[in-house]
Every structure is written in structure tokens, then in C-alpha cells.
Amino acid sequence: MKYARAERGKYLAAALFSVLNKIFDIAPEALIGIAVDTVVKRDNSLLAGFGWNVEQQLIALGVATFFIWVFESYTEYLYSIKWRNLAQSLQHRLRLDTYQHVQNLDMAYFEDKSTGNLLSILNDDINQLERFLEDGVNQIIQVFFSSIIIAAIFFFIAPVIAVFAVLPIPFILLGAFYFQGRLAPRFLEVRTKAGILGGRLANNISGIFTIKSFTAENYELKKIEEESAEYRAANAKAIRLSSMVTPVIRIAVLAGFLSTLLYGGFKTIHGEIGVGAFSVLVFLTQRLLWPLTRLADITVLYQRAMASIARIFDLLHTPIGIEAGGERIAKVDGAIRFENIRFSYGSGGPVLENISFEIPAGTTAAFVGTTGSGKTTLVKLLMRFYHPTSGKIVLDGRDIQGLNLEDLRKNIGLVSQDVFLFHGTVAENIAYAKPQESREKIIEAAKLAEAHDFIIEMPEGYDTLVGERGQKLSGGQRQRLAIARAILKNPRILVLDEATSAVDNETEMAIQKSLKKIVLGRTTIMIAHRLSTIRNADQIFVMERGQIVEHGSHQELLATGGIYSGLWKLQTGEIDL
Ligand code: ADP
Prior knowledge:
The structure is a single chain. Helices cover about 65% and strands about 10% of the residues. The chain is of the alpha/beta class. It has three domains: about 5-315, ABC transporter transmembrane region fold, CATH 1.20.1560.10; about 325-410 and about 495-500 and about 525-575, 3-Layer(aba) Sandwich (Rossmann fold); about 420-490, Rossmann fold. It starts with a helix and ends in a 5-residue tail after the last helix. It binds adenosine-5'-diphosphate.
């Protein structure tokens, strides 16, 4: 309803066409009665009142019938266009809102949820709505109006029979409500199973390389088969119940129809009501009660849509943990300070403890340490993907918690461990932060990242498509595109998290040379395993199990002879394994 309100005028117009269509749809029934009346009573008929003879009466009926049918068809065309377009526009807005909300959810949310399930909500569940909106709403309006109009005519012609005819209506409605309540959980289960199945499908397609290399095709097929079977079983339960709705309601309709037929028939035989009136009654009963069988379909469509709505709204109402708003910052200097940071992911144990350090603006700090010691987590906290459990992170003297999220992230260029490229050309991927940037600037950035040479060797150079997730490129090539992307972004703070781990030594040396130019005047955070890449950093932090255990320049750390100097000796080959 909230979404419909924005287009209230259009909904009213659509409803109006539905009502008009219903009126034109019922009218022929009355015409049949009048026609019977005309041929039976001839000069004493209803239309004879206009002074017409029988032939004239029939012609008048013909003309009326013609126009009524034309109007019925025309209004059907109109309401059908209106409702279907309204359904599409509502879906469109809901889709955008849901996607926007999903985009703003925190990383922690995505770690817990399956991509496939999110996809099935954003795609299937939203698309499910049109099945109800395109026709269901129209049907509800039409059934409601036809019931009122026909019941009114009924009571006017034959009040006693009318009572018999409307008698089943409360039972029909009760039946519909009864089924509503029972269908809801079944359809929700269907949608949930569809989400689980979707999740596995999406996961498998993106992991197809691993599946093939482990020849796990049969194993995966079995899993899919199990989940598809569960989906089928959930559907079977829903089908069993939803298929009962129409027959049950039809029996109630039958009761009403029989009573009109018999009671009205006897009255007609005994001359208490005319033949014309009787035929109208029989038709009307059918017209009154028959559409109510549609309630069955509507019930099913409605519950199906509600199951999807429940999933969509569940997603839409997921609270956003990291608020985007806050103090705007136009330009940052890049002085970073971590004060007593403590952090754990979800309910797990602490990943970072007692982290305090300071990186003056424009200097380079390097973090080294065993995998899992928390280096990347530091970066994620700096970019506010997560909240620290305690302590604060200060940028240029301001707690980043209070800063505008977009401004903060705009000022940080991140080259992360796993590079994600989007389906598109090489140039588009490099210019991801600045889509309007000129080709010259893109090439310049690529040269600095040592990417230019391999790019021009590709079939279409900078216009070569990289494939989904950049899978047509090697790991080292992807990394260099990511570096070029960060260089083009030209941020005040540059974060290189294992940025050159997948390139060969020679290329790495070349990139190091470029980086010397790039990091000039920028605050740079480097995370690296190969110590040769960070030896020139202004300060080096050695991390272990979430804590900083050593700190100093390369020379200072070598002199102290601790963990760092041990690692250095290992890597330079001074220690034989
Ligand atoms: P590093 O970058 O030093 O290799 P990370 O910062 O990536 O280490 O990880 C530190 C620890 O946090 C590891 O033990 C890892 O298992 C855990 N961890 C990382 N990301 C998550 C996450 N999203 N949820 C739960 N635990 C995580």
C-alpha cells in the first residue's frame, strides 16, 4: 500500500476501468432477460413501453448489445494495460529500494548470508509480485463490484430467491480466509527452499573451476538434487492445499445455484414470476456466485505474493549497522592514529587487542606478521567496514566514527588481497573510481602500475573485456589493474594489502620503483609478506596474534634482533632451512 500510494491517481484510474468493465460485462445478462421478455410477451414487453414493435425491440437490443460488448473489450484493454504497468513500476521501485538497502548493509551481513539467497529475493521474490498485482487486484475489485451490483438486481427482482443465492457467500469467504491462513506458511517454505537452492546454485557456478578440478561434479549434482527435491516437496505441500481451494468453494457455489434453479423454477411454473425474470435469475446466480470461485485463485496468488513480500521486507528492514552520515570532510591530510583498539568479529574471540599506533600524514607504514595476525582487519576498521569493539581510530584529529562514510572511503585507495574486477573493459576497470577520466590518464596510471605492456598486448588493448570477476586475466595482471585503479583514484591514503603478492620478482621491482613516486606525499599503509618490498617504510609494525609486538624502522628492527630480523634473515637466505 505504501508503494502504491505514490501513484494513487493511476491506481484509481485502473480501478475505475476495472469497475466499468465489470458493469459492461454484467449488462448482457440483463439484455438476455429483456430479449426473452421481448420474444415471449411481444407487445406487452418491457421495451414495448417505448412504443416499439417486436422487430424494433430486437434491433434496439442488437444495437445495445453491440456497444456493450465493444465497451467491455475496450475497458478490458485499458485496465489490463494499467494494472500490468502499475505492477511493473511497483516492482521497479521496490527492486531499487531493496538493492539500495542491500548495498548499504554492513560487510558482516554479507558474510552470514548466501549470495544466491539474496539474489533470489532481489530477483525472484520481487518478480513474483507481478503475478498478483497484474490480475489479482483487478479480480478483487471486480468480484466485489459484481457481487454488489448483481445482488442489488437480485433483491430488486426476487428478494426471497436472492436470499438463497447470497446465502453461500459468507461460507465462501470463510473458506477463502481459512485457506489463506494455511497457505501462508507453505508458500513461505517454498520461497525459503527456493532461496537455499538458489544459494547453492550461485555458489557452485562461481566455484565451477574448483568443482571441475576436484572432479566433484557428481557430488555437487547430488547436493543440488537433494535441495531441488526439497523445493519440490515444499511445493507439493503447497500445491496439495491450493488445489483444494477451488473445488471446495465451487461446492458452496453449487448450493446457491441449485436453490435458485429449483425454488425459482417452481415459482415460474406456478406463474409467480415471469419466464424472462426466471432466466435472468438463473444467469445472475451464476454470475453472482461463479466469480467467487476466482477468490480461490486470488487467495493463492495473494498468499504467494505475501510469502515473497515477507522475504523482501525482512531484507528491507534489516538495520544498517554502519551509519553513512556524519561530518563531511572535503580534503584529508592523512594523519592516522589507532587508540587502544580492540576488535572481534561477531561473537568470536578478540582478533585485535591493545592496538595503538600513529602514522603521521604523508609517511609510509608497513605491517608484517603471520597470516591471521589481524593486518587486514586493521584496514577494514580504518575503512569502517566494522566498528571496533573499543578504542577509537582518529583521522586528522577526528574520530572516524563521526565522519561521513563516503567522504572517508573516497579518500582511501585500497588494493586488497583478492582483487575484484567487474565485467567490462580493462579501461573501465581502471577508471572505476573516476568513470569520466580521459584515456591518457588511464594509460598513465597503467604505466605506473606496470600494467601498460601486457594490456597493449591483449587483443583489443584497453578495450578488451576482462570477463566476469576478471577471470580472463592472471592473478598478477589483476593485481596490477587494481594498483592502476588505486593510482587513478589519487587518494590521500593508499592501502596496499599484499598488493604485489601475485606478480613475479622482476615486475614487483618495477612496481616498487613506481610506488616510490606514487607514495610521495601520501599516507601509505603497506601489508606485505616479502620484506624487501617494505624495507624503505618510515616505520614497520610486526604483528602477532592480534597485537603489535615490534615497531621501528628496518634498521632499528634488524638491530634489535627480534622476530623481524629473524624473518629478514630467512627471506634473504642468511638462514638455511
Ligand atoms: P591477516 O591479514 O593478518 O592475515 P586478518 O586480519 O585477515 O589477518 O584476519 C585476522 C583473524 O580474523 C584471522 O584469525 C581470521 O580468521 C579472522 N577473520 C578475518 N575475517 C573474518 C570475518 N569476516 N569473520 C570472522 N573472522 C574473521
